[in-house]
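Moderator note: this is an archived Q&A kept for reference. The question asked for a predicted structure of one protein chain; the sequence and the answer are reproduced below.
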Amino acid sequence: MSQGYRVLVERLKEAFTQQRYNPEVVQNYCRNADYFLSYLVEQKIALEAVTPTIVSNCLRLARFGSSVSAMVALPLATG
């Protein structure tokens, strides 16, 4: 993952912590954000180019337990 994305996840963690979210919730949200951003890097998708379809694809793959590396071989749905 790029350094810029790491900064985003750290800022997310700080924001949730300041809002007194449960530490386990913070950890889960940050893990999910890291997973999604890693997916974008693997697919060579800029954060600014994300569409609902891209989010759906990532969620679909996550639900079925695909690793980020395995996701590269799967075609993206269009839409």
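Archived answer notes: Residues 23-43 form the longest helix (21 residues).
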